[in-house]
Amino acid sequence: MVRKLKFHEQKLLKKVDFINWEVDNNLHEVKVLRRYHIEKREDYTKYNKLSRNIREVAKKIRDLDEKDGFRAHSTSLLLEKLYSVGLIPTKQNLALADKVTASSFCRRRLPTIMLSLRMAQNLKTAITFIEQGHVRVGPEIITDPAFLVTRNMEDFVTWVDSSKIKLHVMNYNEEVGLHN
């Protein structure tokens, strides 16, 4: 049994609704965080904010006059940028910019790219490999799983030369004798 609240406690809690808590209305957010194994919630909020800004810019471009040369130029610039980052599949039209969501950014994170390159069996192990320093993108060793990989950098995701995992993969593929 709970004691009756004192007057000043009731005054403090008058503005708080414990039944409809604001943070509980984030089922989609929790689903995305769990699906992509995002540890920092701030990353998700950044992706959400970025995707909202992209959609707003696309809407402003769409509101411009169709005959305006600036509209065509800015549309091509925006689509080129979104395509090179990997947020949209093609550079066809501005409607693709409306489909950019926080999940689009999550799909460009390094662990997800490692999965698509078959460097790891699941996101959890990919994140572990990254945090332990087994993965590099180009010459840089990446230890942050929130690292976003562009289309150009996708080809340069590989194991660190001194990595035991690389040695294990080479042993499995019987390539160790070839490189030494």
From TrEMBL:
Subcellular location(s) per record: Nucleus, Nucleolus
Pfam families named in the record: Ribosomal_S4, S4
Annotated GO MF terms: rRNA binding; snoRNA binding
Ranges that cross the membrane: none
Instruction: Please give the GO cellular component terms listed in this UniProt entry.
Output: Mpp10 complex; small-subunit processome
Residues covered by the Small ribosomal subunit protein uS4 N-terminal domain: 4-107
Q: Which domain of life is it from?
A: Eukaryota
Q: Which Gene Ontology BP terms does the record give?
A: ribosomal small subunit biogenesis; rRNA processing
Q: State the SMART domains in the record.
A: Ribosomal_S4 (SM01390)
The alphabetized UniProt keywords are: Nucleus, Ribonucleoprotein, Ribosome biogenesis, RNA-binding
- The signal peptide, as residue positions, is none
PROSITE patterns per the UniProt record, alphabetical = S4 (PS50889)
* Presence of keyword Protein biosynthesis: no
Cited CDD domains:
S4
Q: What is the protein's major site of localization?
A: nucleus
Q: Please verify whether the record's keywords include Ribonucleoprotein.
A: yes
UniProt function note: Component of the 60-80S U3 small nucleolar ribonucleoprotein (U3 snoRNP). Required for the early cleavages during pre-18S ribosomal RNA processing. Part of the small subunit (SSU) processome, first precursor of the small eukaryotic ribosomal subunit. During the assembly of the SSU processome in the nucleolus, many ribosome biogenesis factors, an RNA chaperone and ribosomal proteins associate with the nascent pre-rRNA and work in concert to generate RNA folding, modifications, rearrangements and cleavage as well as targeted degradation of pre-ribosomal RNA by the RNA exosome.
Q: How does it assemble?
A: Part of the small subunit (SSU) processome, composed of more than 70 proteins and the RNA chaperone small nucleolar RNA (snoRNA) U3. Component of a heterotrimeric complex containing IMP3, IMP4 and MPHOSPH10. Interacts with MPHOSPH10.
Instruction: Give the similarity note.
Output: Belongs to the universal ribosomal protein uS4 family.
Write down what this protein is called. U3 small nucleolar ribonucleoprotein protein IMP3
Q: Which organism is it from?
A: Paramormyrops kingsleyae
